[in-house]
Amino acid sequence: MRIRPPLAVSVVFAWVAITTFSGVLIETLLIYPNIFGDVPESLVRSSEFFSEVGPGDVFPVLGMATLVTGLLTVATTWRLRPARFRALIAVAVVLVGEFGFSAWFFWPRNTVMFVDGPAVHATDELIRVAWEFETGHWLRLVLCGVTAVLAFGTLLRVLAAPQARTPIEQVV
After folding, report:
1. Closest Cα to residue 137, out of 106, 94, 172?
2. Residues 58-112: pLDDT tens digits?
3. CA distances from 8 to 69, 115, 155, 171 (A)
4. Helices (H), 94-122
5. What is the mean pLDDT of the chain?
6. Angle at 25 (CA atoms; ends 21, 49), nearest 5 degrees
7. Is 140 helix (H, G, I), strand (E, B) or coil?
């Protein structure tokens, strides 16, 4: 059985998007309560804990992998309109939600909380910035979920496409 490029790329795109969403969800539920639980002390502890590897080392790579596999999916599904449409929307959500929103909203707050920290900023400001970060993070989580659903929907559309079906005689 020969696997067609749109199917292979769509599988990888769906897998990467779902993995990214799952990672962000786990980060939200397990790590964020520790990071933002007792600002500013928790920010200092988190910086020490994540001194070797932290979310900032992993999620940009996953975001880029989602974007690249999404673009490859758009390219390989160009003739499959329903699949292409979902892939295009997913890529747009990644571009706007992950890259644009992160650069505009999260990066300045990361600098305040983790680069400058309590040595430069007052406790009240750190508490406010941490609250803003956590609140904005829920939107990021939703956008990652939307990307994962659209990537999986793209895969389903590729599987439903006539050229993706293999006659049973060829399989047996």
Report:
1. 106
2. 999 999 999 999 999 999 999 999 999 999 999 999 999 888 999 999 999 999 9
3. 10, 41, 9, 17
4. 101, 107-110
5. 92
6. 115
7. helix
